Amino acid sequence: MLSSCSCSHVPRASIPRNASRAAIRAGRPLRQRLNVANRDTSSLTSISFDVTSEVAPELAAIPPHSQAVDVGLLPNKQSLCRQNLDPTSEEALCSQVSVEFTNSYFYTALAAYFARDSVGLMGFAKKYRAESEEERKHALEVLDYVNMRGGTVQLSALMAPPSDLAENDQLGDALAGAEFALALERLTNEKLLALHKVAEECGDPNMTDFVEGMLEEQAEALYEAGLFVTRVRRAGLGLGVTAIDQELLNED
Predict the structure, then answer these.
(1) What does each C-alpha distance from 174 to 1, 40, 220 come to in angstroms?
(2) Could you tell me which residues come within 8 angstroms of residue 114 by beta carbon, excluding any fewer than 6 positions away?
(3) Distances in Å between the alpha carbon of 33 and those of 27, 30, 36, 184?
(4) Residue 166 half-sphere exposure, CB side, CA atoms within 13 Å?
C-alpha cells in the first residue's frame, strides 16, 4: 500500500487561466503581455542564451503598432527590420545608386552615338547598350539592398552626358569610346572601394559582404574593359575597327 506523499503542497500562483487571452482582448502591447523585462531569471543558471531577457531590448526597438486602417496613410512610417544600418552607410549606398544610374546614362549616350547613320558601328552600339543595361541592374541591386536593410532610398539628379562623347579626331571614335568606358569602370571601382571603407568604419559586416560581391564583379569588368581597349588599339583605324564591330554584332 502506497504511503501518502509527505512533501508539502506548493500552491500555484493565483493567475486566472484566461489572463493572457484577456490581455490580448484588452489590446495590451506584446512587450507588456510578455513582461520579459521584469521576469526573474536568476534560477536559469544552466542556460547560456536567456532569450526572455535578451529579447526585451529588441521588442522595445520595434515601432508600436498603429491603429490606422491603412499604414500607407501614416506620415512617418518606421522600418521594422532596420538594424545596424548607420545613416552614413545609408547615404553612401544612395550615392552609389546614383553612380550606377549615371554609368548607365553615359553608356546609353555611347550606344546612341555609335548607332548614328553617320557612324554606323552597330556592334559597338550593341555592346554599349548591353553595358548600360548592366549598370542599371547594378543600381537596382543597390536600391533593393537599401530597402532590405530598412533604409530609405534617396534618388538624386543625374548628369547629362554630351552627345559627342566618343568623337575624337586623333584617336578615332572607336578607341575614344573604349578608353572612356575603361575610365568609367576605373572610377566605379574607386567609388566601390570608398563604399567598402564606409561599411568597415561603421562596423557593418553585412554591408561589407554586399560591397565585396560588387567589387569582385567590378574587377572582372575592369579586366574586360582593358582587354577591349587593347584590341581596338591593335586594330588601328579603318578596316580593323570594322572587323571588331562585326564580331561584336555577331556575339550572342
Answers:
(1) 104, 75, 21
(2) 121, 122, 124, 125, 128, 166, 173, 177
(3) 10, 5, 8, 57
(4) 26
| pLDDT per residue as tens digits for the range 199-223 | 999 999 999 999 999 999 999 999 9
The pTM of the full predicted model, rounded to 2 decimals, is 0.74
End-to-end CA gap in the chain: 90
124: nearest Cα among 233, 228, 222, 236: 228
Contacts of 80 (CB under 8 A, 6+ apart): 62, 63, 150
* SS3 category, 235: helix
d(CA 46, CA 134): 54
Matching residue, cell 545613416: 87
Cβ-based burial of 203 (10 A; exposed 0-12, middle 13-18, buried ≥19) = exposed
